[in-house]
Amino acid sequence: MRQHEALAAQQRALLGEILRRNAGTEFGREHGFDALKSIEAYRAAVPIRQWAEMIPYVDAILAGRDGVLTSEPPFFFHRTSGTTGTPKMIPFTRRCLALQQHTLRRWLDRAVLDNPRLLQGRTLALLNTAVEGVTGQHIPYGALSGSAYFRLPPAIRRTYCHPYAAYHIEDGAARRYALLRFGIERPCSFVFSGNAAALLGAFEFADRHAEALIRDLHDGTMCGDFAVPDSIRAIAMNEFRPDPQRARVLAERRRRGGRLRPADYWPDLQALGCWIGGSMGHFAPALRDWCRPGVPLRDVGYMASEGIFTIPLGNETPGGILTLHTAVFEFVPEREFGRPDARSLLAHEVEPGQNYQMVLTTTGGLYRYAMNDVVRVTGRVAGSPVLHFLYKGGQVQNLQGEMLTVDHVVGAVTAIASEAGLNLRHFQVAAELPARRYALQIEPAAPVPAAILPQLLQRFDRALGSINENYATLRGDRQLAPPVLRVMQAGWFDRLAEDAVGRVRRDSQVKLAVLVGEAERPELADTVIGLSAIQP
Asked: What is the pTM of this model?
């Protein structure tokens, strides 16, 4: 916190260290790092870059050239999931590793301060494998969420209820079953995954396979219906013991409640760790519905393959303070991004309540790199801005000039669902250009009476207009047609998740879109309601 009180000085010092370390690199020589003595000089010499402009440098590293971006060679590459295009290969050095380990320890420190019994039981983590392959120069690459497993403090790794090898199970259903089977064997106090949808999917999966899980708990076995490798079964055979009494308790709780919930098999669960902001925020009510009352959600922080950039300072908030030790942060006002005269503000210059595009300079060789992420400054703590991730830049739909964002649609749908008392497994708002309208697709967790569907759609229309004045004006002028509501079949959410996993092969990193230019799986609609006869 002392670093945050000296925010501007700390950022200047970090930039000076980065420039000194890397003055002799190809990039450093091209941009005269050895002559840059201030942040102002640095910003004048180095333009803001998108990933496409970084590719030649990274390709040179992948080809085996030393000293391209950093004097210290990368020993790992964080490979993006590719959900927004061709996967990126982000260089990761030993210096990056030390700073990331420091960040993860600080995250854990704060989480335990707020939840003192967080690690009293076991931990279940839904992550990816650390290493997915190697480059032509035999440097490993993989996902941040997988490699973070080995970067967490030993204190938390010792609490894991499952072997790391379980992440390597090829079959998705078998992998999920194995992780849950290890998780149910001993009550967990902490369960986390970057993706809230992955947690929700795991809870629903456990309920669907409740009989097998309870039978396995009773017998001390692992179900043979899933393609779990023999090596994992051997570990299970050594660890599992028959527990008929606990199996009977779970069976009775399931009978009384109508489903098997984490509240039944993890009665001492202290917190769920996952993203609770941005497009993931709408999963929060469903997660709470599965757990005992009072179990808090703990945001895992604003992170990407490029690094971990915030540490939340409390439960139930997606906002966090900057990890000032990991990167030099710049902020471009959202509406100015891409303009030649766009301002670039430092962390101590941003204003609460404003949206910005993030620009980073990291110890891993990214220099004034545009993340294409939009964040909102929600306040300050010890002089440092508190950031709330909103959405990827470009995740905007604009049929007639309304500039509808993910933040707008999440706010509108969350409001109408809360007002109507609805629990939605998933929703999606699609811009339909030929009809000049938006389509709201929802999959309710329980059937919705047909009589309230027109009211629900009308409330959605009004809610969007109250959040986005341009939308309201264009609807009033009939430049935008009335929206349409599609109530999707049960299983639509699962189909979208399967489609996404098939594309990126990482179930814990799949982020299902909630604002799209083309509706996904519209053929799975059971009911379609329009507002053509209702004025805005």
From this structure: 0.83
